[in-house]
Amino acid sequence: MERLLADHTPPIRTITARLRELILKTVPEAEERLYTGWHALGYVHPVAGLFGGIFPRVEAVKLCFEWGGAPAGP
Question: Residue 45's closest CA among 33, 55, 31?
């Protein structure tokens, strides 16, 4: 993760670290992978496969999910 965040500001590093902690706490069986070409951390579930990623950018951090979110209630 340090390699990914080396050129980012402290706020971007903090947001990325907090999102990373939340994902790994919520889905402890997830494997974290560094995708240098995407400039991202990806998360892979052993059964479901790739389910999301964290994309630190210059002024923001994007949290993306591979298949979107669940539909809203009735």
Answer: 31
Q: What is the pLDDT of residue 72?
A: 55
Q: Is 33 helix (H, G, I), strand (E, B) or coil?
A: strand
* Domain segments of the chain as ranges: 2-65
State the amino acid at position 74 in one-letter form.
Answer: P
Instruction: Extract the tokens encoding 40.
Output: 């991202």
The rounded radius of gyration (Å) of the Cα atoms in the chain is 13
**In 1-74, at which residue ranges do the beta strands (DSSP E only) sit?**
31-35, 40-45, 49-56, 61-65
| pLDDT per position as a tens digit, 23-41 | 999 999 999 999 999 999 9
Round to whole Å and give the CA distance between 58 and 46: 31
pTM (2 decimals)?
0.85
Coil, strand or helix at 69:
coil
- The secondary structure of residue 28, as a DSSP letter, is T
